[in-house]
Amino acid sequence: MSHAASTTTPAQLFDKHHATLEAAVQAIHARGYWTPYPEMPSPKVYGETAQEDGRRAVEATFGQDFELDQPGRSGWMATERSPYGVELGVRYPVCDADALIAAAHAAMPGWQRIGAQGRAGVCLEILERINKRSFEIAHAVMLTTGQGWMMAFQAGGPHAQDRGLEAVAYAYREMKFVPHETVWEKPQGKNPPLKMKKHFEIVGRGVALVIGCGTFPTWNTYPGLFAALATGNPVIVKPHQNAILPAAITVRIAREVLAEAGLDPNLVTLAAFDKREATQALATHPAVKSIDFTGGNSFGQWLISNAKQAQVYAELAGVNNVVIESTDQYKAMLRNLAFTLCLYSGQMCTTTQAILVPAGGIATDQGHKSYDEVCADLAASIDKFLADPAVATAVLGAIQSPDTLARIAEAPEHGRVVLASRKIEHAEFPGAEVRSPVLLACDAADEKAYMEERFGPIAFIVKVADGAAAVALSERIVREHGALTVGIYSTRAEVVDAMTEASWHAGVALSINLTGGVFVNQSAGFSDYHGVGMNPAANASLSDSAFVANRFRVVQRRYHVE
Amino acid sequence: MSHAASTTTPAQLFDKHHATLEAAVQAIHARGYWTPYPEMPSPKVYGETAQEDGRRAVEATFGQDFELDQPGRSGWMATERSPYGVELGVRYPVCDADALIAAAHAAMPGWQRIGAQGRAGVCLEILERINKRSFEIAHAVMLTTGQGWMMAFQAGGPHAQDRGLEAVAYAYREMKFVPHETVWEKPQGKNPPLKMKKHFEIVGRGVALVIGCGTFPTWNTYPGLFAALATGNPVIVKPHQNAILPAAITVRIAREVLAEAGLDPNLVTLAAFDKREATQALATHPAVKSIDFTGGNSFGQWLISNAKQAQVYAELAGVNNVVIESTDQYKAMLRNLAFTLCLYSGQMCTTTQAILVPAGGIATDQGHKSYDEVCADLAASIDKFLADPAVATAVLGAIQSPDTLARIAEAPEHGRVVLASRKIEHAEFPGAEVRSPVLLACDAADEKAYMEERFGPIAFIVKVADGAAAVALSERIVREHGALTVGIYSTRAEVVDAMTEASWHAGVALSINLTGGVFVNQSAGFSDYHGVGMNPAANASLSDSAFVANRFRVVQRRYHVE
To answer: Residues 378-397, chain B: which have Cβ within 8 Å of A?
Structure first.
């Protein structure tokens, strides 16, 4: 994985990646399907030995120091515990936060100087190198998060790279829009005009901190990392203490590219901390001007309340929900929902937690189905989907956190068990903690049960008065508790329209009658806005203009010219 | 001033103003000179009787109820005291904040429905009507703020309209960038592609509050008003209690245009409060999602700390400064600075307060000038400029606030008086409080004297060790106390370069060697960024993408299509 030492300038990197960048900017204009990073782990694309090379590269880090040559190193830490039961023992450098900040500051003027194009070129080179090492990163993501292999490759690799490139495209579009200079010439009637030359310099706001989560250490880290970097800011990446390796590989690649381009590698550093206090001290440092955070409400709200010197972009907990009012594809609907609930054992911020079903049942192409029938049929659909242990373990992955295991165990207290969770043995990883989803039935009045996030494979089928009540309840859940996704199943236009209006009022992305190969918990880069930024689950969106525009400023100077 | 009741739809208004809007969008791309609103108060442009009509329209409001037909009216208030000594006595409706918010909320869906084009069309129609009534608004601005007539016309009229249109152009550019809908078609190898239709709805964040200041009731209000309105939000305008009339006329025009376009006029309402508590209650209302504020640090910081439910765009106090290191146009430099200090008696947020001059004096085209000579020569230049009372009163205007009069009175405590302030009689307005600037000399070590904002015609000539120290001090002042403008006079490229770097680090707009008809305190719409948003004087800029991008969200919905 070593690279030739020949220096490539940022301007050359911009030329190299210009076509991809322009295509990405076109993609965010159109928001149709587009990607430069193939999502299929094909040997033809990634190389015949890529899978094996990636696995070996990760295994070579086990029990070793992961050297990054960062300033202020005071020691090493190894905190990762694999949900698959694999011994990792990778030791990461623990660096003094003040040293990282001082180094980041020192690196900033050179990063400003190369301008929007140079920065975009460097960012795209980093992303290209990351893409080439997708198997290595996928293996690191899988082992640290518990994701199944295919999800780890796709979501941890190309899809995460898409989100990084998308952020660069938004940033580049906004920066390119600012003219580098202009001549301002104001007529003065019969007198000569007033004439001034003006220069407009794009300046980053300051040190950016990106705090990752334990389940999607690249997908949720790359947008903030690349948005901040492209707009002129040095970035300190603070990964979740249980999912450091994917971030550490990413940081190492970024530092290599920066150094090769003649830039200061301390523009991107890794903050490996095992104590929350260390992260808190870093997050409230006066030099830190933006924080991207993905994680729980308690630390997220702490950041928003305490890191007042910084703009905080936060993705927090929510109660995603789906309304089932009626359907003309009952079986396909159940299959779609079953897959949604099983995928990575519901450990996605977009997974449905509450399914709202009228007490009187629903009209379907299979005839009327009572509330209890819907419950039983969804349970059966999940059971059927998980019948093959190889499919089950591939889709479910492993449970990332002991907290989630505890939530699964106590879930039956919160409703009538429609489908119990069971432990599934993993053929390849005997230590893997694999669990099937638990499905609970409860009444709309049991708000304590279903109206707080219960992260993991825990879903409620909530009995509501009727379709209108379901739509109203969905809106209230989103307003009060937040959501990244909602769904509606209905054959009636007026119900879909009402749900659409509710989604506008509450500010949440809506999926309508998903019965095929797209799932409510999937969000495609360059097309789907992930998070709206209007409800308690997230105050920002991946990606829109607001995600990048506030990360830089324009500093002007002007003087008379003849 | 009544308008025909014939309804013009938002779409028709968009067509009517489309060319102007496109030109405005071009202008923010180029940021050269451009305006659709002539700044000269010419009868040929504005009508032969426009000046007289405007004055009469304002005088007709004296002592009367200013009816706006707003909901929740509980009484009337008349709080304005003219710095020119004119009795105003205009009574404004005091409306219940909850009633204004409820009405704003009710008006929002219809405003969302007409889309970005419809909203832009309505905003441009409002601005056109405001422009036609520039004389009326100018008269209201002059009488309430103490501005001289020409400034009241230009800054209160066309220049303020420029800033409003500029905000609409930024908002429109960002909204237009979001596709209304798209088809996402993802290849599936040999299988048929996955195909989805997606719709993207632009939704305003919620009720916007725009809090005006006492000195520029239109120029500092229109950017927030039009940025928020164009992006889909209802706006409550809370003017300074001493400068309500210009805002009230504006709100009345906006409500007329909205009603004529078949929209709910409660999208724009006036909040006339005479108690800070009422504004505080409104600002912290959960429904208020953005606040634009221009004013002092104490209330501004209160808003930032307490109105956490809202995005706050704040322009606060600062210590604007100019470094004089050397010049090859000594007299022109002094004339330029003298005018800057005199214009509206220094009651501009952009007026220079601290002039940093090396202890050893400066090199000039008139030979070496000692520090004391620079002090004396600047004082003489001001004296000369104000020698003609007609010129003096026209440029100085009147002192807006008794607090400023008190600051002028106590200013001599803070330094050696180089030029004393004097009271000047106004030929037309015997009650006008007109004051010439006070110029003080002090040492760089006397930080308590010059390093806090002393709003009004109070300036310090600060003795610094040398040019390098002056540049460093300027940067520190901006970093610690904020500034909207800094200036440099130097014939040496390396000094200008050092000041340029300092302006990037501190985040402040720099004017270099101004000796002609442009002044450091002037900021031209569509070209100069007013405020950088990086130092304590302002957390936002007029206007850039960041000023508009966060005021709306994109809510998507998606479904399978064949």
So the answer is: none
Phi, psi of B14 (to 5 degrees): -60, -45
d(CA B418, CA B396): 19
* ipTM of predicted assembly, 2 dp: 0.97
Q: Give the orientation angle of helix B276-283 with respect to helix B97-113, to 10 degrees.
A: 40
Rounded Cα gap, residues B239 and B145, in angstroms: 12
What domains lie within chain A, and their CATH numbers?
A: 10-316 (3.40.605.10), 321-512 (3.40.309.10)
Which single residue is written with the structure tokens 């809506």?
A510
A63 pLDDT above the threshold of 90: yes
The answer to whether B491 faces chain A, any CB pair under 8 Å, is: no
| Cα distances (Å, whole numbers) of residue B147 to A498, B46, B141, B396 | 52, 21, 7, 7
The answer to whether the Cβ–Cβ distance between B555 and A534 falls below 8 Å is yes
| pLDDT exceeds 70 at position A494 | yes
| Coil, strand or helix at B420 | coil
Q: Rounded to an integer, what distance in angstroms lies between the CA atom of residue A295 and that of residue A402?
A: 16
Q: Report, as an integer, the average pLDDT of B379-407.
A: 97
Mutate to test the interface with B, among A306, A534, A535, A561 (most CBs of B within 10 A): A534
Residue A499 token pair: 């749900």
Beta-ladder partners of B291: B209, B312
Short-list B77, B71, B108, B105, CA closest to B90: B77
B355, with CB counted inside 10 A (0-12, 13-18, 19+), is: buried
With 80 as the cut, is the pLDDT of residue B7 above it? no
**SS3 state of residue A458:** strand
List all residues of chain A from 498 to 557 with a beta carbon under 8 Å from chain B.
500-501, 503-504, 507-518, 524, 527-529, 532-534, 541, 544-546, 549-550, 553-557
Q: Region B84-90: what's the mean pLDDT? A: 97
Q: Which two tokens stand for residue A247?
A: 């971030």
What's the rounded Cα separation, in Å, for the pair B367 and B361?
11
Dist CA A537 CA A359 (whole Å)? 28
- Sign of CA pseudo-dihedral B364, B366, B372, B376: negative
Find out whether B79 and B214 touch, Cβ atoms under 8 Å: no
Instruction: Pick the residue from chain A with its C-alpha nearest to B515.
Output: A560
The residue type found at A42 is S
- B540 within 8 A of A540, measured Cβ to Cβ: no
Instruction: Pick the closest to residue A91 from A213, A241, A218 (CA basis).
Output: A241
